[in-house]
Amino acid sequence: MEEQVHIASAFDRDLEKIQSQIMKMGGLVEDSIRQAAKSLQTRDQTLAQEVRDADKAIDILEAQINEDAARMIALRAPTAVDLRMILSVMKISGNLERIGDYAKNMAKRTSVLSQMPPISDSTGAIRRMARLAEEMLKDSLDAYIRRDTELAADVIARDEELDQMYNALFREFLTYMLEDPRNITACMHLHFIAKNVERMGDHCTSMAEQVTYLVTGAHPDEPRPKADETSVRTQE
Fold first, then answer.
1. Measured distance CA(115)–CA(108) in Å, rounded
2. Contacts of 2 (CB under 8 A, 6+ apart)
3. Which among 38, 43, 112, 197 is most buried, taking Cβ atoms within 10 Å?
4. Which residues contact 59 (CB under 8 A, 6 or more apart)?
5. What pTM did the predictor assign?
6. What is the pLDDT of residues 179-211, one digit of tens each?
7. pLDDT, average across residues 116-123
8. Cβ–Cβ under 8 Å, residues 210 and 148
9. CB atoms within 10 A of CB 181
10. Quick count: other Cβ atoms within 10 Å of Cβ 15?
11. Predicted pLDDT of residue 14
């Protein structure tokens, strides 16, 4: 009995550590989204480089989380419920890493776009998209910590709004390119940035779905609504 209590206590300590790492990683990713969008709108190449450099810390954290999670499975012999918790953590860290990559990709294109004439208020529109993605990320992490399935469902529902914002921008870019071929290069870069932000929303939704899985043992019953009308025409 004493040994079981000791093992449980060790598992709780390990889990607390790994959840702390998830929140730290989430904070870094939130900052990356915000700073990447800001650098795009303000054409701040120094800030864009800081976003690219910060991605290394996100990658290191993901590797550490996966290593710690694998060690917990090997050493702590988790029960079914505890194993589900560990697997959810690994899935969430993978989603966070991908969102960080998308923020880095945004920052990479900032230096190119800063040399081109601006296309209307497109960077402002992308920044608004990024703000929504950042809010979805924050809420999905809060839902995970609080085991709040209602908040998780709200995050999933908001992904449709992000898709609609992306669709509107996509149509705008097509219009600008048709009006003046000189806009094509800039619009293509801006389109890929907008697509990256749209994909951030997908990963936030995946994190929210993990909350439902963690709490109930099952993924959401119905497929989430997907309003990206361009998915058959574009690649990630």
1. 13
2. none
3. 197
4. 97, 100
5. 0.87
6. 999 999 999 999 999 999 999 999 999 999 999
7. 89
8. no
9. 8
10. 19
11. 86
